[in-house]
Amino acid sequence: MMKLAVSGKGGVGKTTFAALLIRTLNDQGKHVLAIDADPDANLAAALGISDSDKITPIAEMKELIYERTEAKPGSIGGFFKLNPIVDDLPDSLSAKLDNIKLMRLGSVKKGGSGCLCPESTLLRALVTHIVLMRDEVVIMDMEAGIEHLGRATASAVDKLIVVTEPGRRSIDTAGHIKKLAAEIGLKNIAVVGNKIRSQKDEDFLKKHLSDFEFLGFLPYDNALIEADLNGISPYDVDSPSKAIVKDMIFKL
Ligand SMILES: Nc1ncnc2c1ncn2[C@@H]1O[C@H](COP(=O)(O)OP(=O)(O)OP(=O)(O)O)[C@@H](O)[C@H]1O
Ligand SMILES: [Mg+2]
Fold first, then answer.
1. Ligand 1 in reach of 226 Cβ (< 6 A)
2. 3-state DSSP assignment of residue 189
3. Rg (CA), the chain
4. Which residue of 21, 224, 244, 245 sits with most ligand 1 atoms within 8 Å of its CB, as the best mutation to test the pocket?
């Protein structure tokens, strides 16, 4: 089953796009494991999961982290397991909506030279397990980087989708993400152009990202902004993006 990661500059529409993708797949009868890997985002809300603000991120589940890694609470630099058991977590710790299971990863505070701590070890083990072993569709809503992915998982990710909007910084970020992806051996990257107002916008992205594959373009749409303001899933409002996303899935 397809494993997709969604990345891009802050605010370009990663979560909106991921939510549309996940809900469409769900409507097509697919089982989807949705991973919210962006600490600032709320994929659950965008999916229309109720009480989404009450979902505790895995990184904050101290008891679980200590239990699985056998780390001693409060001890710094102590010994802990580098291969904690995580196989049961996607089923037991996910929020559910229809055939969608959602997990919030949360964030790990980094110590200077990249942290090797129980929290990050558990998250890494979990993401590796999900990407390599789960047999449903997996969609990961990431931040402007691809931090949670590593060499072990890169080859199992079918596509890294970089959401972009017509703007310089969004393009710069796309280039940066491509570099990060290449470093871990992830070569299958595609771009989605979002918030497109005119042919000019589309041409701008095509021109500046000419070395990327384009999955498609989504129009700038007030209905999506309204949905966000009203706490409604972008999938539950009338929007031309829904048909376009369906078409993208067909292409994938
Ligand atoms: N096609 C679109 N047209 C108009 N507004 C859009 C479109 N797509 C997303 N938006 C709006 O842009 C804002 C940011 O969207 P979203 O939260 O999906 O971005 P993000 O990349 O996930 O942001 P973050 O980096 O904060 O996680 C929201 O208000 C959303 O409604
Ligand atoms: Mg987001």
1. no
2. strand
3. 18
4. 224
Instruction: Look at the alpha carbons of 123, 127, 129, 130 in this order and tell me if their dihedral is positive or negative.
Output: positive
Beta strands in 28-157 (DSSP E): 32-36, 95-97, 100-104, 137-141
| Beta carbon of 214 within 6 Å of any ligand 1 atom | no
Amino acid residing at 170: S
Residue 74's pLDDT is what?
65
Helix 62-69 with 118-133: angle, nearest 10 deg: 80
Q: Is the CB of 11 inside a 6 Å radius of any atom of ligand 1? A: yes
Question: Which ligand 1 atom is at minimum distance from the Cα of 218?
Answer: 1
Distance 215 CA to ligand 2 centre (A): 19
Residue owning the nearest CA to atom 7 of ligand 1: 195
Ligand 1 atom with the smallest distance to the CA of 38 is 27
Q: How far is Cα 235 from Cα 232, in angstroms, rounded to an integer?
A: 8
- Which residues on adjacent β-strands are paired with residue 216? 192
Each residue's pLDDT tens digit, 148-163: 888 888 889 999 999 9
- Within 10 angstroms of residue 45's Cβ, the number of other Cβ atoms is 20
Contact assessment for residue 145 and residue 180, using Cβ atoms and an 8 Å cutoff? yes
Indicate whether this model's pTM tops 0.85: yes
Residues of the chain with pLDDT under 50: 112-113
Tens-place pLDDT, residues 193-248: 999 999 999 999 999 999 999 999 999 999 999 999 999 999 999 999 999 999 99
